Request: fold
Amino acid sequence: MTDYLAPFIQPLFSCASLGPPWQLSDDFGPHCDRRIDAQMNRALAEQSSDPTAANALWESVDRRLTDAAPAVPLFNRQHLTLVSDRVETCSTTPCGACCSTSSG
Reply:
């Protein structure tokens, strides 16, 4: 879970993302919850030493943000990935498609 949550959640919903002096970033309204911030920082610190604990913290952050609803998604994007016969493997991640081709 931490592999994809940290790069998306923290830049959008941490208190630091507002910048000085409380300037808005991106198109999101201001959201600063010091308790959620503390949980995100603990999860980041735990990622390398205790991934299981970090996952539990990120799940809690995700639930708290869902309950607070600082942003409401208006749509779910769908992606289409076209591949040729040369593609050996192709999988999707939250960042997009990752494909590899045969070498011959």
